[in-house]
Amino acid sequence: MHFTRARDLVLTGLAAAALMYLLVRQFYGQMPPLPTLAGITLLILAVVEAGFGFSLRSRIRNPHRDVQPLTAARAVALAKASSVLGAIMLGVWVAILAYVLPRRVEITAAADDLPSTVVGVTCSAVLIAAALYLEWCCRAPRDQDNQPPERSSGANG
């Protein structure tokens, strides 16, 4: 398993944004008003992941505390899934923002939805950051210090 690449997140976010923009452009008049705090669940997940990452990092760096490999693997899987979710949701919220921002003066609903989109964009970005932090926290201390991995002493073929 490799660490999350920014390129993958950007492509995922752009695909979600393009699809959502087309949907919003077509169906905005039929959509219900967006709840102002709709994106807060992403922020809650981000806070939990950042706390978990901080705890896990201190346990990994402490040679006297044992971290089960399955725990680290699950944390990395959670981090990867959350960063992809954050990228998708960032794309969705940016698409909605791109639609409502220029129309906020002429369409009352667009002006009312603007705070929701700003909250959504912000919380999605925070989730991506927290997920990448959690993933970084799961690296071995040698990887975190940007040192090259140790070579095995076996014969290379």
Helix content: over 70%
**DSSP helix count?**
5
Question: Approximately how much beta-strand content do the residues carry?
Answer: under 5%
Q: Output the radius of gyration.
A: 20 Å
Mean pLDDT: 88
Number of domains: 1
H/E element order: HHHHH
Largest sheet: none
Number of β-strand runs? 0
Name the shape in a single word. Answer: elongated
Give the terminus-to-terminus CA distance.
23 Å
Low-confidence segments, given as residue ranges, are 150-157
Instruction: Report the structural category.
Output: mainly alpha
Tags for this model:
mainly alpha; 157 residues; single chain; 5 helices; disordered C terminus
Please, could you describe this protein's structure?
The chain has helices at residues 6-27, 40-61, 69-103, 108-137, 141-144. It has 157 residues and is mainly alpha-helical. It has one domain (18-142). The model is unreliable at 150-157 (pLDDT under 50).
Describe the structure concisely.
With 157 residues, the chain is mainly α. The protein has helices at residues 6-27, 40-61, 69-103, 108-137, 141-144.
Present the secondary structure layout:
Layout: H1 6-27, H2 40-61, H3 69-103, H4 108-137, H5 141-144
Helix pairs in contact: 1-3, 2-3, 2-4, 3-4
